[in-house]
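Example 3.2
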Amino acid sequence: MTAAAVVALRYRLPFVLIAIIALVSLIPVDYTTLMPEGVLTEINHADTSWLLMASALVLLMTPGLAFFYGGMVRYKNLVSTLLQSFIALGIISVLWIVVGFSMAFGDSIGGIIGNPSTFLMFKNVGFAPNPDFGPTIPFALFAMFQLKFAIITPALITGGLAERVRFTSLMLFIILFSLFIYAPLAHWTWHPEGFLRQWGVLDFAGGTVVHISAGFAALAGAIFLGKRKNMHSHTRPVNIPYILLGTGLLWFGWFGFNAGSSLAADELAVRAFVNTSLSSATAMLTWLLTDGTLGRKRSAAGAAIGAVVGLVAITPAAGFVTVGQSIFIGFVASIVSYTAVQLKSRTNIDDTLDVFPCHGLGGITGMLLTGVFAVEAGEGVGLIHGNIERFLYYPLALVIVSVFTFGGSYLLYKITDKLVPLRVSSEQEEAGLDITQHGERAFDFSKE
């Protein structure tokens, strides 16, 4: 086979795969939810209404992230950066229905991974509740709510690779990451038989599954790709209003992210709602005041980044801590991430949009402080309540998750690079990814 034929096959294969999936989807399957014998459940319409709304709110976070990231890059890479987040909406939605949901929440195989055949092509995912995954809401709604978490995780990673990653390669990596990193991690943490859940490691809404995993994957990608060409210290974000718009959409959507994770319209959802707002507000103020203390200008971009760090940090703890503790978590996370951003600038690691300092370390801070403060079902299970043994599972889990997500992601980058080179050429990087990858510009200034 000639080199030209290989290239042609490489670009046609994805279309063939989506066509096959579309055809296979026509095969009738059983959509009756599997439930244990003798278990009777009834849909609660208030809970269902809230989860429908929460799912829509979480979906809005991905476009919000696109604007947040897009505003931070250079003009020539604006469209590319926006699309790198948006594309996850398409890729993960299809992948989740085909096999992703089953690998995350299917019958447990040793507490490590779900059986891919349990919910293959959404088989057995019906409209009756499943007592293990939201006993008062349709099981299909739970699956759709979880889909939105699966979408935003690889979208977060793209911030570490921005301005130099090949779009085709990124799409392949997103698929591999979702199947071999995200799905097992979700199973460990949120499936009743997952080994981290069995250990008592709490993650209310994705501090570990979403943010720590995305942070370490972005760090691995930044190291693998190397630094961008011709970067200067005076390079500034292209669009500050985009950053603020993205932050607003993220903050708004995060109420669904955290409060929706109660899976009911109840007091737990209200607790998560209140804690989410206060942690973010505290982290935003802390970031700005830290800038002022160090004699720096208090920037709009800094306020936005601080707010997002607070949202990240409260995510694992949102339903398990008090209002005062949520303020403390936002404060500590902001200081940690702010310090990490300053230190990163002294290294050769080019994590373009500071995904690891903000999402990775923000998630780590929230995870460990969850282990310190947590109250679950009215019972104090955190370190301050005397549960030293249970707390020690948190740093152990952190080590396992860190090694798995960083090492696993680095391996997936190498595999992806062997199949389709990850980094664009120097000429393409210099010209900008908008034109070289997509044939578009963010704004048309022509007079036609």
